[in-house]
Amino acid sequence: MNKVAIVDYGMCNLDSVRRAVEECGGRAVVTDEQGDIEAADRIILPGVGAFPDAMRNLTERGLHKVLEEQVRTEEAPFLGICLGMQLLASLGYEGGETAGLGWIEGDVRRLVPTEQDKRIPHVGWNEVVPSTSSPLFEGIDPGVDFYFVHSYHFVCRSEDDVAAMTPYCGGFTSAVARGNVYAVQFHPEKSQRHGLQLLRNFLAL
Fold first, then answer.
1. Catalytic: which of 150, 153, 187, 194?
2. Which residues, at least 6 apart from 113, have a Cβ–Cβ distance to it below 8 Å?
C-alpha cells in the first residue's frame, strides 16, 4: 500500500483529500513534518486560497526545501491540486508578483471573463479534455466533468507541459504534467467517481 504524504501548509481543510486517497487504497498522512514527506511513496500538495499566502507558508515552514528534494531530486510521484497546481509556476500575479516553486515554467493569472463565461470565480462542474495521453487520465473519457473552484489559472510557457484544457473563459489549462510531476486545477476529491479514478491512477504511477 502506497504511503501518501498530504502536505499541510495551512491553506485548506485536508480531510476530504485524505478520505479520498484512503478510499482509493492509499495510506494517507496529513503532515507538515519533513520526515513524513521523506518517507512517503507519493506526495500530494492541495490548496485553496491566495498564491502569496501559500508561498509564504511553504517557505516559513521549510516545506519548499523538502519538496524540492523529494520531488525534483528523488523523483517521488507528485500531484498538485487547485492552488497546489498554481504554486508550480514561475510567477503568480495575485495581489502583486510572487515567485512560485518554478517547477513548470509559466505564470498564474486571473481568469478573464468572456461574454459567454462571465462568472468569476469559476465554481462548479466543467469538462476536462486531455491534450496528451497522460497516465493520470487512464480510463477516464475525454470531456467528462470535474469540480472547480478558482479565479486564477496557470498559463504554461510550453505546450508540452499542458495535460488537459477546460473550455471556460476562452479555455484554460486544467492539468499539467512533466516527468513525475502532475497537477490539476480541479478538485478530484470532490469530483465523485471520475475524481477517484484519477487518484487511483496517481497511486498506480
1. 187
2. 119, 120, 169
Stated pTM of the model? 0.96
Task: Give the burial class of 130: count Cβ atoms within 10 A of its Cβ; 0-12 exposed, 13-18 middle, 19 or more buried.
Answer: buried
Q: Encode pLDDT of 21-73 as tens digits.
A: 999 999 999 999 999 999 999 999 999 999 999 999 999 999 999 999 999 99
Q: Are 12 and 49 in contact (CB under 8 A)?
A: yes
Catalytic residue, from 12, 150, 169, 189: name it. 189
Q: CATH number for the domain including 66?
A: 3.40.50.880
Number of domains in the chain: 1
Residue 106 burial (CB count, 10 A): 24
- Does residue 46 have a cis peptide bond before it, meaning omega lies within 30 degrees of 0? no
Residue pointed to by grid coordinates 502506497: 2
Range of the domain at 60: 3-203
